[in-house]
UniProtKB/TrEMBL annotation:
Major location category of this protein: membrane
Pfam families for the chain: MFS_1 (PF07690)
Membrane protein topology class: Multi-pass membrane protein
Residue spans crossing the bilayer: 21-44, 59-81, 88-107, 178-198, 233-256, 268-292, 299-318, 324-347, 359-378, 390-409
Segments forming domain Major facilitator superfamily (MFS) profile: 230-421
Keywords noted in UniProt: Cell membrane, Membrane, Transmembrane, Transmembrane helix, Transport
PROSITE patterns given in the database record: MFS
PANTHER family in the cross-refs: MACROLIDE-EFFLUX PROTEIN (PTHR43266), TRANSPORTER, PUTATIVE-RELATED (PTHR43266:SF7)
Protein name as it appears in the record: MFS transporter
């Protein structure tokens, strides 16, 4: 009975989110486009792996091309997001992504694939920050953690369905059809976003930026983060975690394909693991959302969860039993949602509507070079000491972050000012 009452309590907490029709349409649009992208992700992995003859650094370079635009254009994107209607920024990004993705059908040269990947990511730099900046205006401030948790759960469902479909589509209907499906999903998303009517009060001036304004706007975004203790601490944690985790995706794929000798089954097993990750994340997102809403010391909560993540990720790397690996990934999904939920909640509750786009984009911009460095170091090291050993080092880095951040003066100051858990 107690468990049933608890589930009902959780349902009541999220009822205001579910009943918000505009928010649900935005989330539905993102679900559809993300589902298509999950499918084409497997197609792109296979295409690059075949064209590169299985070279690890080429897979890593693909990930770098995805991250590089956030570093180059992140600050500019934030300024645009805070000046223009975010709804139309999202719709335009979807349309452009559809055009870029469909071009992958006709390309069989690695250099051109990298360029197309760069272009797609350059367009997408604007979309997610625009959505994250707009959504808090659609709910009460105290419900922002629930918003992020619900959206995280939807993303996890996308992970489950997309991973299963991705492996199936690539296996049964081929790489080209996977790209067609992804392109169509972006068009559908753009149509849904285009039919939404929402008042965007942050729009003050749609004129072109005057000379010198760009630099001042960028500096203001950095200044807002640096002056606020919560944002500064979140940035510190985010950059450390990004370094530890950015290299994981290409290395796990290689770990499955070469260390575990799975060969052509690697995509299927990777899809199963990602699906189990998503199953765990659905439950974890909802629970963590409640915790983030109720507890003031969100940073301590996240660092404790990160320590658990380190331990169980180590178990995954050392394990050789598939069913146990699936169970471990499910648990990792359950606890692994905390990072983005807490990050988004801190930004959305702290930054004003007029500056929220700049803060989100600046976080992404500062995160990108760390991601690139991480991938370069991780994939290069894997050539010498194996993907398995690099992943074990990554797990150790996570544990050091979870323990080391507690020693910083910023964290200790925040901890003193909060009631704690």
């Amino acid at each position: 009975m107690a468990h049933i009452k608890k589930l009902k309590s959780y349902g009541q907490e999220y009822s205001t989110i579910i009943k918000n029709s505009i928010l649900m349409r935005i989330i539905a649009a993102g679900f559809i486009s993300s589902l298509g992208s999950k499918i084409s992700y497997f197609a792109l992995l296979r295409k690059v792996y075949i064209l590169s003859n299985g070279k690890i650094t080429d897979l890593g370079f693909l990930t770098i091309m995805e991250a590089l635009p956030y570093m180059l254009f992140g600050a500019f994107a934030g300024i645009i997001i805070d000046k223009l209607p975010r709804k139309w920024i999202m719709a335009f990004s979807d349309i452009m992504c559809a055009l870029v993705v469909i071009s992958l059908i006709f390309v069989n040269d690695l250099k051109l694939i990298y360029i197309i990947t760069f272009l797609k990511s350059s367009v997408y730099v604007f979309r997610n920050p625009a959505q994250s900046a707009m959504e808090p205006n659609l709910v009460n401030q105290e419900d922002v953690p629930l918003l992020n948790s619900f959206e995280s759960s939807v993303n996890s469902i996308t992970q489950i369905i997309g991973s299963a479909l991705g492996a199936a589509v690539v296996g049964f209907v081929g790489v080209k059809n996977a790209f067609i499906i992804d392109s169509a999903s972006f068009i559908v998303s753009a149509v849904i976003i285009g039919t939404i009517f929402v008042k965007e009060e942050h729009v003050h001036n749609n004129k072109m930026m005057v000379k010198g304004r760009y630099l001042r706007e960028f500096v203001s975004g950095i200044s807002i983060m640096w002056k606020d203790g919560s944002l500064k601490l979140m940035l510190l944690i985010d950059l450390f975690v990004t370094f530890a985790m950015a290299m994981q995706a290409p290395l796990i794929y290689i770990f499955l394909k070469e260390t575990l000798k799975l060969g052509d089954r690697a995509e299927l097993i990777w899809g199963i693991l990602l699906s189990s990750l998503g199953v765990g994340a659905i439950f974890g997102s909802l629970v963590i959302g409640i915790l983030v809403k109720r507890y003031k010391n969100r940073f301590k909560l996240f660092l404790n969860i990160l320590l658990f993540d380190s331990v169980f990720f180590t178990m995954f790397i050392l394990n050789r039993v598939l069913l146990l690996s699936v169970a471990i990934f499910a648990f990792l999904g359950c606890i692994g949602t905390a990072h983005m939920i807490i990050l988004n909640t801190v930004i959305q509750n702290t930054a004003s509507d007029e500056h929220r786009g700049k803060v989100f984009s600046t976080f992404a911009m500062l995160r990108s070079p760390i991601s690139i460095i991480s991938i370069l170091i991780g994939t290069t090291a894997a050539e010498f000491i194996s993907a398995r050993n690099v992943l074990l080092i990554v797990a150790g880095i996570e544990a050091l972050i979870a323990l080391g951040v507690r020693l910083t003066s910023t964290y200790r100051s925040f901890d003193r000012n909060s009631k704690g858990i």
